TrEMBL record:
Protein origin, superkingdom: Eukaryota
SMART domains assigned to the protein according to its UniProt record, in alphabetical order: CULLIN
InterPro entries linked: Cullin, Cullin-like_AB, Cullin_homology, Cullin_N
Protein name in the entry: Cullin repeat-like-containing domain superfamily
Single Gene Ontology MF annotation: ubiquitin protein ligase binding
Any one GO biological process: ubiquitin-dependent protein catabolic process
All copies of domain Cullin family profile, residue ranges: 323-554
Amino acid sequence: MAKKDSVLEAGWSVMEAGVAKLQKILEEVPDEPPFDPVQRMQLYTTVHNLCTQKPPNDYSQQIYDRYGGVYVDYNKQTVLPAIREKHGEYMLRELVRDGPTRKFLLDGYPTSSNILTVFILIHKEREGEQIDRALLKNVIDVYCGNGMGELVKYEEDFESFLLEDSASYYSRKASRWNQENSCPDYMIKAEEKVQNELLVVVAKQLIENEHSGCRALLRDDKMDDLARMYRLYHPIPQGLDPVADLFKQHITVEGSALIKQATEAATDKWTEGAGPGAYQTLIDLHDKFMVYVDECFQKHSLFHKALKEAFEVFCNKTVAGVSSAEILATYCDNILKTGGGIEKLENEDLELTLEKVVKLLVYISDKDLFAEFFRKKQARRLLFDRNGNDYHERSLLTKFKELLGAQFTSKMEGMLTDMTLAKEHQTNFVEFLSVNKTKKLGMDFTVTVLTTGFWPSYKTTDLNLPIEMVNCVEAFKAYYGTKTNSRRLFMDYSLGTCQLAGKFDKKTIEIVVTTYQAAVLLLFNNTERLSYTEILEQLNLGHEDLARLLHSLSCLKYKILIKEPMSRNISNTDTFEFNSKFTDKMRRIRV
């Protein structure tokens, strides 16, 4: 027995020293160091050894009783006197100080004072004053924690008094309102108070509840519940602000995730897939949340603003290093050009898609950059006859103009006007040739007259055309001189195309090439073999431009010319000749 007592006393002395040190730390005694790892492990080991042995060496009950006694003594000698010295809110702050150390105070402390102070705070909030709700929550936690997992203590010592006080409070209010107000005014006041008790005081908790609050409703697409939340909080001043903030956060997270997915999926050929495809998913996302704004939130301006601010965040992110302005311009190009969406959508569907594009443009911060990308792609659609429908081109520009003004679309509209006038010029040019019999071209020749200020600038060179082309150009200049004397005509061959008849040994093949490539090939009508230097001198091209042209005609898929020596690099010592043995299964090829 003596041995057993000595083990208990030795262990308790270690624990007692640890408890004394803990009390000093809680009371913030100056220069009291925290527990070091060795001390913590010693305490843990001591308690473990005393409380986990089999009888008769199990001291858990004795340790529990002794520790409880120390705890009660500490509360009576240190904590309760400190609380009694305070009054009002200061008393409550002392009560909840140090968190868990105050959980078991209520057994030895009269609760009427702190309950009365809590009720005073609740009354202040009911009258519209701001109170420290965190303090109120911490005080109630003391009551809840005092029940060792049960709410009996809370219900007996707090809730019962709260319900009694609330009944008394509203009984007095009702009596006074009845004397001072008409029946309608009385009902308005009663409605406001009920609303305040049921919604306002718990608004944050209801809305931000992790499992069933606004975030969860948005995540699970609970539109009926979101609409109900809107109706409940709409009448409350600033009641919708936290809902709109969570709506904005939710959209931002979803949109940013889509952009991240598009970036991860992007390749070097982003323009044909991941980049513009991301904007289709953003259009779908915008459609989805516009339904929320319209149906759940009754088109309230606060939610329109939240939607706009959220989309502005991720609509201006890059995808694989490509700006959002360029991606949206490419998306428009894919819709409008032949072979794109324009041939797959009915007119009404296409118009609806164009309207959605404009809605996304609202969120792009650099709209001028978008305009430049759009104009360059529009120019290629028009010049290469890839625009699916002039009506839809003009329809989209009209939508741009309504949104951003006439200056934004003036150059784009000018390009469309130029294309209309160019068709008239071509008709008149054909008539001019029929009247002037001396102007025999020997080929079909089409010129598109463009206004310099409307179109993107392109790299041009002072190309010496072969004689076949010179005759065509001179004929058009003669025609144009009959139409105006105030405009100077400058020929730009950089975007021109030609269709040549390549007469090879096995068959004649129609070859579609650029104007520059055609100029090179036509030189071989008069000779079968030319050196690099001879071609350079006859065409007046730079070395870099000529090397690129000759490489495309002799080193790639369609070897129209044979290069000597045979290699994939172009040198100024190379020679070239027409490849009469060239053939292809197709009768028409594009080099």
